[in-house]
Amino acid sequence: MASSNVAGNVPAFLNQNPKDRVIVLGVPLPLLEKVGLYALLAAIVVLPMVYDGYDIYEFGKILMYMLAVLGLNLLTGFNGQFSLGHSAFFAVGAYSTAIMMDQLGMPYWTTIIPAAAVCFVAGFLFGLPALRLDGLFLALATFALAIATPQLLKYDGIAHLTGGVQGIVLDTPYPPAWVDGIVMSITGEELSVDRWKYMFTALVAVIMFAGAWNLVHSRTGRALIAIRDNPLSAKTMGINTSIFKSAAFGVSAMYTGVAGSLFAIMDEYLAPESFTFAEAIKFLVGGVVGGIASLFGAIFGGWFVLEIPNFADLVASSLENYINNPQGLTGLIYGLFLIFTVYVMPMGAAGLAQILVHKISTRR
Amino acid sequence: MDLFIEQTVSGLASGAIYACLALAVVMIYQAIDHFNFAQGEMAMFSTYIAWYLMDDAGLGLPFWIAFVVCIIVSFIGGAAIERIVFAPISDAPVLSHIIVFIALFSMFNSLAGFLFDFTPKQFETPFGHTALIDGVISAHRAGMVAVTLIMLAMIYAFFRYTPIGLAMRAAAAAPESARLVGIRVGFMLALGWGLAAAVGSVAGMLIAPITFLTPDMMLGTLLYGFAGAVVGGLTSPLGAVLGGFLVGILENWMGTFVVGSQLKLTVALVLIIVVLLVKPAGLLGRVVVKRV
Q1: What is the DSSP letter of A274?
Q2: Residue A99 domain-assigned?
Q3: Which are the contacts of A99, defined by CB distance < 8 A and separation ≥ 6?
Q4: Domain range holding A111?
Q5: Which domain holds residue B52?
Q6: In this predicted structure, what is the pLDDT of residue A3?
């Protein structure tokens, strides 16, 4: 029981070989990963040169969801704690940014770090009682948190800050003059707000992703993973499980909260209805389908949760004569994919990729 | 004082609904050691089925026939979900179970909107809405309490006095020993799911005339159901019922006299966390001792 891994049991062969000895189609795996990583980075840089308007806004949204899912992955996949309530931390981040912009008149880009700090503290504090709750009960407590959040945001007592049911309309995040100047001198065109929003989101997302990468591959990251795999042994080895678990909750809330900040900045508007349990389900879907114990899985997950509603709309519009309520289709497809993932690929898309790599590399 | 009595009685009435859901949650918790996060959505979907059976655009059946048919359909549906979805992953880690519950949640929620559209629907009640006893309680709320109590008595009798009820209790308490004495544990699990779904459908049909029928109507209600189950003790069906009624009264008291109606769900959140931290066994639950 103690050794059972929340993220599904990792096939033994994945841990057999040291990574650098795995050869895929004649290329060592670490080199392949590095090439993949730089290709991804290059794609992130090239995208705004090619796309504009709604397309680039969508790509920004993918990166935003990637961050939110990453927060959940750090908590559930790497530390073994459940959360069905990450929509609450998403809301804390979004509202922190919105209130700082709206009430204090701070420029949008200065709100990210304070909002991250607020979310870290919120997550850390929620993580303290969570220490005493085992997996299932933590899921229940966070479920309650997710359901109570929209009502709490509408509360009259804080409506002068949150705008109550109406929400808050924010200023448009215009690009700084110097960025505009650089772009102008290179392309001769003015930088559109949509492109700038994407660039800003991408910058934050890449920095945060690199941070998560370093965290997971550090001493702290190994401690988190040890706590997930066997809390008792971890404690015996001298890891302060309480501090690490609460801190993991804090860091996780920080990632999802920064995603919330970016959400507020990108949409220039936020209201309590954006932070319902459905949002928490989205993060869970992204985490699980992408691979909950994987950083790259979060990228796939972010893309997945954003594309599925579009896909559902497409299906609905092609069946226009038979379907009256296409909004209903998205949740159905999310659910089907969740069950499919649990049955067929418990480690998500990232796990599937790992297995494929193994299959190819051991083929004689 | 009048307000106090009125709020207490109306709290008892909504407590009846929470008691039903809490009971359904505890039945599944005892059988498979998991919370059914989709319990509320299953109840909501059952209620849509009842609406379809009664509505003129549907089959146009009278209330009580639709009521019984809906319970039977929910029972079969619940048992089918256990057999089809949960039986294959009974050995999977906790996270897999939670994910599948959330998947069911999402699917039922959107399926209801998809099939029956998202506009709130009026759900008729056989009791009417006339006020009883100087306007302290409406006829429908009194009927809610009565139906709940009758159903709880029937479930108690079922578990206490019938051989199959005994077998179900055995299968939940000690699956391996039960299997050794010839009880089909898998079948009992399916029965338990069916019963839980049926109890949930009754809760849905009773609360729909008050809240109107929408895909999201059960979200807050389920939270109170969970709170009831936690307060009463997750290992005790009687505790769950008691907890449900207590939470119903507490909700109304807090809502009217302390925090106002806008923070009612937060009350449930705080209640769940505090009880889980301070007295995880609840009022009537067993203290579970885990071997390390």
Answers
A1: G
A2: yes
A3: A161, A162, A168
A4: 28-274
A5: 2-278
A6: 37
Q: Which of A81, A125, A140, A304 to mutate to test the interface with B (most CBs of B within 10 A)?
A: A140
Does A154 fall in a domain?
Answer: yes
Q: Which residues 6+ apart lie within 8 Å of B6 measured at CB?
A: B135, B136, B137
CA distance B8 to B250: 8
Could you give the number of structural domains in chain B? 1
A24, A12, A33: which is closest to A362 by C-alpha? A24
Q: What is the mean pLDDT of residues B133-137?
A: 71
Q: How far is B173 from chain A (nearest CA, A)?
A: 19
Establish if B243 belongs to a structural domain: yes
Q: Does B261 touch chain A (CB under 8 A)?
A: no
Q: Which residue of B85, B107, B269 is in closest CB contact with A144?
A: B269
ipTM of the complex, rounded to two decimals: 0.90
Probe site for chain B from A78, A128, A332 (most B CB atoms < 10 A): A332
Which residues on chain A are in Cβ contact (under 8 Å) with B247? none
CB contacts of B92 in chain A (<8 Å) are: 8, 342, 346
pLDDT of the residue at A6: 47
pLDDT tens per residue across span A208-259:
999 999 999 899 999 999 999 988 899 999 999 999 999 999 999 999 999 9
Say whether A136 and B34 touch across the interface (CB within 8 A): yes
Contacts of A331 in chain B (CB under 8 A): 106-107, 109-111, 113
Per-residue pLDDT reduced to its tens digit, A259-292:
999 999 999 999 998 899 999 999 999 999 998 8
Give the three-class secondary structure for A168.
strand
> Taking CB atoms and an 8 Å limit, are A151 and B103 in contact across chains?
no
Residue A316 and residue A298 in contact, taking contact as beta carbons nearer than 8 Å: no
**What number of CA atoms fall less than 13 Å from residue B122's CA on the CB side?**
3
3-state secondary structure of A167: coil
Domain count, chain A: 1
Residue A2 has pLDDT above 60, yes or no: no
Q: What is the mean pLDDT of chain B?
A: 88
Q: Tens digit of pLDDT for each residue in B215-256?
A: 888 988 999 999 999 999 888 888 999 999 999 999 988 888
Tally helices (H) and strands (E) across chain A.
16, 4
- Mean pLDDT (chain A) is 86
* Interval A129-137 mean pLDDT: 85
Q: Which residues of B55-87 are buried (b: 16+ CB within 10 A; e: fewer)?
A: beeeeebebeebbebbbebbbebbbebbbebbe
Structural element, H or E, at residue B171: helix B163-173
Say which residue, B132 or B214, is predicted with more confidence: B214
Indicate whether A4 pLDDT > 50: no
CB spacing of B99 vs A7 below 8 angstroms: no
B160 in a domain, yes or no?
Answer: yes
Q: Which are the contacts of A311, defined by CB distance < 8 A and separation ≥ 6? A: A333
pTM: 0.89
Q: Measured between CA atoms, how close is B35 to chain A, in angstroms?
A: 7
% chain B with pLDDT above 90: 36
Residue B268 lies in a domain: yes
Q: Is residue B59 part of a domain?
A: yes
